[in-house]
Amino acid sequence: MGTKASTMPIISKMYCSSSQVVLVVRRRPHVISGGGFVVTDCSDHQKVIFRVDGCGIRGTKDELLLRDGNGDALLLIRRKGRMVEALSIYKDWKGYSFDYEGSQKLVFCLREPNLCVVKNNSMRISTEPRVSNKDWDFEIKGYFPNKDCSIIDTKGNVVAQIGANVQELMASKDLYNVVVKPGIDQAFVFGVIATLDYIYGESTRC
Predict the structure, then answer these.
(1) pLDDT at residue 50 greater than cutoff 70
(2) Which tens digit of pLDDT belongs to each residue from 6-42?
(3) Are 18 and 31 in contact, with CB atoms under 8 Å apart?
(4) Which of 15, 19, 67, 192 allows an S-S link to 186, with CB 3.0 to 4.6 Å?
(5) Which tens digit of pLDDT belongs to each residue from 144-155?
(6) Contact between 144 and 196 (Cβ < 8 Å)
(7) 179 contacts 164 by C-beta, under 8 angstroms
(8) Sign of dihedral through CA atoms 138, 144, 150, 155?
């Protein structure tokens, strides 16, 4: 009998599946819908799991919003003030979840290296509450613009794979898939992907 995967809720345990999940990302055109992207079930492209609003929709730079399939806000992602960053080797992106009263709670911080002052371009993510005894909990491996990268934990385990080799998806630059491992919070994964999308100037950026 196999070992049951432990759940790792960061946004909510309702987004942690006991089995591996394959989801499809479809980027929205800026001209028609203001950009951002929609996440659907790989077996039913009409079933929307998440939506991401970028600055083309929100009208605010350096700010993203992850919504569930019903359009309810799950996660607000903001970049830290530019004046502070000018003196830092990192640019910090912070993700805040919403409780039932609408209050915001910090759940993760992604550190984007400032390439002007640091050579190591590894992006690392810390979560609240912490899940490891290091100063980071997850890391991005690979290159997001090529849709060939992973989110890994401190032990080197892949928790999510972006752009797995599914031939029919690879034909379109506006369509790619994401494999999320058992027990991993899917809302957290797509909050990270939304941040990467913005950093690399893709669908969420104006």
Answers:
(1) yes
(2) 888 899 999 999 999 999 999 887 655 567 899 999 8
(3) no
(4) 15
(5) 988 889 999 999
(6) yes
(7) yes
(8) negative
- Spatial CA neighbour of 137 closest among 97, 109, 96, 163: 109
SS3 105: strand
Nearest C-alpha neighbor of 38 from the set 200, 183, 162, 176: 176
Cβ(52)–Cβ(66) below 8 Å? yes
pTM summary value: 0.88
DSSP string, 166-183: -HHHHT-TTEEEEEE-TT
Six-digit token string for 8: 């790792």
**DSSP run (H or E) holding 163:** none
User: Residues 6 or more apart from 117 whose CB is under 8 A from it?
Assistant: 89
Q: Residue 185: which of 100, 76, 103, 97 has the closest Cα?
A: 97
- For 78-93, what is each residue's pLDDT tens digit? 987 655 555 566 788 9
Give backbone dihedrals phi and psi of 82, rounded to 5 degrees, phi first: -65, -35
* d(C-alpha 166, C-alpha 177), whole Å: 8
Q: E-strand spans in the chain?
A: 21-27, 37-41, 44-53, 63-68, 73-79, 90-98, 104-113, 123-127, 138-143, 148-153, 158-162, 175-180
